[in-house]
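Tip: read the tokens left to right.
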């Protein structure tokens, strides 16, 4: 058995999977982020440890035999977080999360230095780790002076599991400190941002063993002694492991908390001016490119909170609406935007609200706005020379048939939905644990899922959605005038 941990923004998920890829047990433990100011997003790192203890306790109580059969553990986690630790490996402050945009000035300063794009292959986005650490140094100097180590979120959880300070290539690629092509820390980038190399964790490939489980943790949760803890990776890279997305031409679209259009790459071919991310994959000698929007299903969650209906209830309302595009426009920049705008200050809007609009109309507009933002991402990927002729659809938003159809028609690309099963980042982490402990064949362990259904673009409404997207694209510069 192999155990995969997926550290998300709103909770931790654990799965136990066998060598044939079947999931036998799972557990989840939620937690919340704090938003003390506009653009700030923080979380207490010890919540992650508490959540892991909760998941392990659930699994030990309900699936003791499966826990005792676990040979390896690996992790997936949200990227870009800044966890600052003192000399005793204790957090000095809450983690600045991936969607925290307070470090926009620091990011602009670093990005103006040509060295960063040349070495890292990426724009320095405000959400990346380096500018956030620089913000702490500037605004909390006494605290920063105590910083012995900077870690990424999942790696703090691994530190608790093993006592080892380590990270992997795919997560490190989102810090602005990695030479992504060489798959090594850049001492010059690190020092330019005010740190030293010895303040960063050791680098590993995603399937490399990072250490073994601490004996007290193993004893407490019915795990065998000497369980190997494999490095793991960043959430989207590990999700790609879960769906077998490795070769040039493979890609997926994710309707998760954030939205992603990802394409696997056989080589490192960055084009940072497009605001497309070019990162190391979680497996050796592979990279990937992706466009990212900061809010996808998070937009639905926002609407749900404000209308007092669940996201599932709102999604069901759209099923009864006509399939053509809506004139009511929604711009999903609730927390700023990455691809293609790299704009931390821009904010969202409804445009064209009418007295007759109700929850169903608002929901459809949100789905359409997120879909159009992902079209912008696909176009940015195309500008790098990456062309996807089909994509796998993953993430919670794909449960809505109406949304998937709208997205396929907007993208102009068929969306393949996998057979009912578990192909998320927790499963990808379990696959990395298997690869890292068994030494088996990557292609057989990380195979593609069977496709249950392919949603083709609707030719009857393709022109209408294309015209509506053109109108949508005029809204960013208009909103920029209002949010300079």
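Filled-in amino acids:
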């Amino acid at each position: 058995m192999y155990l995969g941990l997926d550290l998300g923004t709103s909770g931790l998920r654990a799965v136990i999977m066998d060598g044939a890829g079947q999931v036998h047990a799972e557990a989840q433990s939620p937690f919340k982020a704090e938003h003390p100011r506009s653009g700030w997003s923080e979380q207490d790192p010890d919540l992650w440890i508490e959540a892991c203890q909760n998941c392990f306790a659930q699994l030990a109580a309900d699936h003791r035999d499966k826990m005792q059969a676990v040979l390896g553990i690996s992790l997936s986690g949200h990227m870009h977080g800044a966890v600052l630790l003192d000399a005793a490996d204790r957090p000095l402050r809450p983690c600045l999360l991936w969607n925290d945009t307070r470090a926009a000035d620091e990011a602009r300063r670093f990005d103006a230095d040509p060295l960063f794009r040349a070495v890292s292959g990426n724009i320095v986005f405000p959400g990346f780790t380096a500018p956030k650490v620089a913000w702490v140094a500037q605004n909390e100097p006494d605290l920063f002076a105590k910083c012995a180590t900077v870690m990424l979120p999942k790696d703090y959880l691994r530190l608790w599991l093993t006592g080892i300070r380590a990270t992997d290539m795919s997560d490190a690629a989102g810090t602005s400190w990695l030479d992504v092509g060489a798959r090594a820390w850049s001492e010059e980038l690190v020092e330019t941002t005010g740190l030293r190399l010895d303040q960063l964790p050791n680098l590993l490939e995603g399937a490399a063993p990072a250490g073994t489980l601490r004996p007290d943790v193993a004893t407490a949760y019915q795990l065998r002694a000497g369980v190997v803890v494999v490095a793991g990776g960043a959430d989207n890279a590990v999700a790609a492991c879960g769906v077998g997305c490795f070769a040039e031409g493979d890609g997926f679209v994710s309707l998760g908390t954030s939205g992603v259009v990802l394409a696997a790459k056989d080589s490192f071919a960055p084009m940072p001016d497009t605001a497309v991310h070019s990162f190391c994959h979680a497996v050796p000698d592979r990279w990937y490119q992706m466009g990212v929007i900061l809010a996808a299903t998070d937009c639905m969650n926002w609407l749900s909170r404000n209308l007092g209906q669940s996201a599932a209830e709102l999604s069901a309302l759209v099923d009864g609406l006509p399939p053509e595009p809506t004139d009511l426009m929604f711009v999903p920049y609730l927390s700023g935007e990455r691809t293609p705008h790299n704009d931390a200050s821009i904010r969202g809007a409804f445009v064209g609200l009418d007295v007759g609009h109700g929850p169903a109309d608002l929901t459809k507009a949100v789905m359409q706005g997120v879909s159009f933002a992902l079209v912008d991402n696909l176009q940015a990927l195309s500008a790098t020379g990456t062309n996807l002729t089909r994509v796998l659809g993953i993430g919670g938003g794909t449960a809505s048939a109406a949304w998937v159809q709208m997205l396929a028609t907007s993208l102009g690309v068929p969306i393949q939905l996998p057979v009912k099963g578990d192909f998320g980042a927790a499963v990808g982490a379990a696959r990395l644990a298997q690869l890292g402990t068994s030494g088996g064949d990557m292609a057989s362990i990380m195979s593609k899922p069977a496709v249950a259904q392919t949603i083709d673009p609707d030719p009857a409404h393709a022109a209408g959605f294309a015209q509506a997207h053109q109108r949508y694209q005029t809204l960013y510069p208009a909103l920029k005038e209002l949010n300079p």
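The radius of gyration is 21 Å. The longest helix spans residues 359-383.
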